[in-house]
């Protein structure tokens, strides 16, 4: 795992493509939650989500190891794939992305616009991920995993920005998809020697990480039927679970209705757009309103890539 010097070097490299995002304290959110609330605005990256940081670092380091790289293959519900597509296009590397059937039309369009070849396959992310591995083995193209040390280090730069810019925080709420965001937050907190509590948030309809955290072993679920596609994981990554079980205080389950309410709250109180996964952290903080009274907390708005019709329906509720 990386040290603080390596993390700062990664931040400098990533900043050439992804400028640091702001962290703001929002008075209306403070009134709503009864505590000081800082929002880390990863919805302000060029990709509209935090994943682009990991994509930039991963592709650069991959090319250093494999300068004759033929191409890359990966699976995604959107933000991971978009981050790779942007990095691959800049590097001139062919990229194939597997997405599940019925995936977000707007996320698909964004990946295609960045030059990725999209292949729809399977009922969910984990099925698409298995197919991506098969195609990579057949073609000899590099398989980009959903979780990797370079991806964690890349996305950890958002945590470095937040924890160094904001005043001391009692706790930070972080959404969990495959785990790179919360792993990066845990590692950065530890490197900075802070006592900030880190709380993971999952959808109650996709709670494989919560079950695994509680039972101390990998627990896979049969389904992950949540509109918050960035949280729709059925099969946790063992390496992420190890970090989370060591460094997170707990993992909260939030109902999809609570995530929708958090999307509306972010719009009303900050006029920012959040996708489902991006609003999950605030939903977790709202769920723990009593615990947070009088504290200073932060929530990670991890992304804004939500389809227009879905967002319109949520805001109109």
Automatic annotation (TrEMBL):
Gene Ontology BP annotations: isoleucine biosynthetic process; L-serine catabolic process; L-threonine catabolic process
Named cofactor requirement(s): pyridoxal 5'-phosphate
Domain of life where this protein originates: Bacteria
All residue ranges annotated as the Tryptophan synthase beta chain-like PALP domain in the record: 16-303
Keywords noted in UniProt: Lyase, Pyridoxal phosphate
GO molecular function: L-serine ammonia-lyase activity; threonine deaminase activity
SUPFAM superfamilies found in the cross-reference section: Tryptophan synthase beta subunit-like PLP-dependent enzymes
Entry protein name: Tryptophan synthase beta chain-like PALP domain-containing protein
UniProt source species: Stutzerimonas stutzeri
Gene3D superfamilies xrefs: 3.40.50.1100
């Amino acid at each position: 795992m990386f040290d603080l010097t390596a993390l700062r070097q990664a931040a400098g490299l990533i900043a050439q493509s992804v400028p640091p995002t702001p962290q703001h304290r929002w008075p209306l959110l403070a009134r709503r939650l009864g505590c000081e609330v800082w929002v880390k605005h990863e919805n302000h990256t060029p990709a509209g989500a935090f994943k682009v940081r990991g994509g930039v670092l991963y592709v650069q380091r991959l090319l250093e190891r494999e300068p004759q790289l033929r191409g890359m293959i990966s699976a995604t519900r959107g933000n991971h794939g978009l981050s790779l597509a942007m990095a691959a296009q800049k590097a001139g590397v062919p990229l194939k992305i597997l997405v599940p059937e019925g995936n977000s039309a707007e996320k698909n369009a964004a990946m295609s616009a960045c030059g990725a070849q999209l292949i729809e396959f399977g009922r969910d992310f984990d099925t698409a991920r298995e197919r991506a591995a098969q195609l990579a083995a057949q073609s000899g193209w590099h398989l980009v995993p959903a979780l990797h040390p370079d991806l964690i280090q890349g996305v950890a730069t958002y945590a470095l920005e937040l924890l160094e810019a904001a005043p001391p925080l009692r706790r930070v709420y972080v959404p969990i998809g495959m785990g790179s965001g919360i792993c990066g937050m845990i590692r950065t907190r530890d490197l900075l020697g802070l006592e900030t509590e880190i709380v993971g948030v999952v959808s109650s309809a996709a709670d494989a990480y919560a079950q695994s955290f509680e039972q101390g072993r990998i627990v896979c679920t049969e389904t992950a039927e949540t509109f918050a596609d960035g949280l729709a994981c059925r099969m946790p990554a063992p390496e992420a679970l190890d970090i989370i079980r060591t460094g997170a205080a707990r993992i909260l389950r939030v109902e999809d209705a609570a995530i929708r309410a958090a999307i509306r709250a972010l719009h009303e109180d900050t006029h920012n757009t959040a996708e489902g996964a991006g609003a999950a952290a605030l939903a977790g903080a709202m769920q723990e309103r009593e615990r947070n009274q009088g504290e200073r907390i932060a929530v990670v708005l991890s992304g804004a890539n939500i389809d227009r019709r879905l967002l319109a329906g949520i805001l109109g509720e």
